[in-house]
Amino acid sequence: MIPILKRINILAQKQREDGLTQTEKEEQQQLRQEYLQIIRGQVLHTFSGLTILDPLGNDVTPQKLKIAQQNQMFKTNDEA
Predict the structure, then answer these.
(1) What is the C-alpha end-to-end distance of the chain, expressed in Å?
(2) In contact, 51 and 59? CB cutoff 8 Å
(3) Beta carbons within 10 angstroms of residue 25's beta carbon
(4) Per-domain residue ranges for the chain?
(5) Which bin fits 40, alpha (ψ -120 to 50), beta or left (φ > 0)?
(6) According to the lineage, what is the superkingdom (predicted)?
(7) 48 falls in which pLDDT band (50, 70, 90)?
(8) Is the Cβ–Cβ distance between 4 and 34 less than 8 Å?
């Protein structure tokens, strides 16, 4: 589970019950942005490992995804 999700949920519950102070609203907004970045990163990571095959077993992975996978492979090799 994503660590900041617990705090996001606490702030959401408090917002429904009592309302939030301006500081808490700012914290909530920042945490939501961080959460979205984490989720987007997970989705991109998942898609970067996909290969799409048609019913005949031919690789029909979109060219844009293949290029992104190649770029990711080069980044990984450069970091090693």
Answers:
(1) 28
(2) yes
(3) 13
(4) 1-48, 51-80
(5) alpha
(6) Bacteria
(7) confident
(8) yes
The CATH class of 1-48 is mainly alpha
| Rounded Cα gap, residues 40 and 73, in angstroms | 19
pLDDT in tens, 3-42: 899 999 999 999 999 999 999 999 999 999 999 999 999 9
What is the sign of the dihedral through the CA atoms of 29, 34, 38 and 43?
A: positive
pLDDT, residue 76, reads 60
The Cα angle at residue 31 between residues 26 and 75, in degrees rounded to 5: 130
